[in-house]
Each structure stands twice: as C-alpha cells, then as structure tokens.
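ok trying again, last paste got cut off:
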Amino acid sequence: MDKLKSLMIFMRSAQCGSFSEAARQLGMAPSAVSRAVLRLEDQLGVRLLGRTTRSLTLTEDGNRFYQRCQQIINDLSEAELEVKRSQSIPSGTLRIDLSNTFGKMHIAPTLLQFATQYPDLKLNVSFSDRLSDLIEEGIDATVRIGISSDSSLIMHYLATARYITCASPSYLAQYGMPTTPIELLQHRTVNFIYPQTRQEPIWKFEQEGKIIDLAVDSYLRFDDSEVILAAVIQGAGVVQLPKFIAAKAIARGNLQPILQSYATQVGLPIAVLYPQKRYLSAKVRVFVEFMTKLAVALKQADVVD
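nice, full thing came through this time. structure:
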C-alpha cells in the first residue's frame, strides 16, 4: 500500500508539474510529497522528475515509468469496477449442487428460464444427496432436503417436503383399499433403501396428534426414488414417498393417495445453503431469489408445503 501511495503521489506531481499543487490536491504537506517522490527515486535508482524553481518535468526514465504506472492505475480501476459490478449485476460462473431427485424433477427444468433471465451468468450444475464442502469444492450454493445448516453455512428455508402414502389405481383395484396403517402389513409394499446402511426407512403416520411408526417389510427396495416411482405406477404396490416425487403422477391419475386421514405433518425442510460471506455476491443472491419464487409456485401446485 505504501508503494501504491508513492506511485499516486509521483503521478499527481507529474500531472501538476508542482509539488505544492500536488500537495494541495492530495491534502498533504509539500515537503511530504517531495520526500515521497525522492524515496521512490531512491528505490528505483533513477531520477523521475527534473526539478527547477518553477516546475517539475518528467525525465526520459520518468516518462516511461509514468506510462506504466498509468496502466497499473487503469487496471486497478477496472478491477475495482469489475468487483463492484459483480456485487450488483449477476455475472461469471455460478456453481450449484442440487439435491438429486428434487433437483432433477423440479429445479433443472426451470434453469433455462433462470439462465435466460441472467445472460451474463454461466451455470455449472451438479446433483448429489451429500452435503458438499462448499468452500473446498468451489460450490456457490446448494439445495438440500432435511439438512440443517452448520455454523459455516447460511440456510435459507424454502418449503417443507411432506410424505404421502399412495398406490396405483390398478393395484388398489386388485388388492383393496387399506383403511388403517396397520393394514399395510398385509399389503405389498415398495420402499427406499439407504445406500450407506442398506436399511429402509420407517413409515410415519399421525393419529390425533400422535406419531405412528410402521416398520414395513417391503418386497421391493431400491436406492433410487425415481425407480421406485416408476415401479409403483406400474402397480408394484404401496409406497410412502415425499409428495414432491409423487405429485405429478397423482395429478395425472397414475397414483392415488391413501390413508390421508393418517397423513403426518412431520416433514423435511427444503433449503438453499451457501457459505457465510461478508458480502453476498449478486449471482448467489439472484439464485436464492429465484429458488424462493420457485418454492412459492411449487406450493401453489401442491408439490411441497
């Protein structure tokens, strides 16, 4: 910073042709301006300014140095403008990591609209269900379900993913409509299996404010929700899925909700997470705003709550 200040003092002195005028414009004492230029000359080992009692003039070396300094100052000004612009106008590359199924089903189809809205942005999109190390992996923001923020992340809540129990009309026509959760133990059930533990989740229901946990013994288990959805649509059995996975199939009549009077209000938060920073970049800010509007639309479509 001292060297940059010395360059600025030298350039102003050359422009003004006078230490006293440069000092006046810089709000410094003339002697301080003169000493700063002399120190710079001593460091470089060349005379930059020719002095007379009336004026200052650039030496040949001083003129070459002045031109290079002018380029440095211009570059610095452009860099400052670019950084300030990035805080107000979304630009550059936005790296986002999306929750696998929710991201592919409900976010990815809208990203063209987002990209069209912000033409100066480039999108790098990945899909996973693990909470990435955003800073280490260079990710600007991630959308996750059921994960609370830690101290290093900001969590912007979007909606809640609730579970719905359903089956295809063809399955219900063949095996009958269950009227209580316990009857599901006599039905063919399809379930998710966690890749890490190979365990299947407990199904949850609610009656008079009390949670009912039901451990189903599924005959079909997959570690991919979209595969489960396809199987159940084909009549494989009863399933309990997040509503955002089953919503379109229900709307088309491919699946039918069951046991709705036992539906639990327990759900998982859907949120955008991004690293804590003193200044939020424009590209992350507009992505959070876009996801907030998308969440509103998904609530209106009864995909999430």
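cool. The mean pLDDT is 87. The chain has ten helices and 13 strands.
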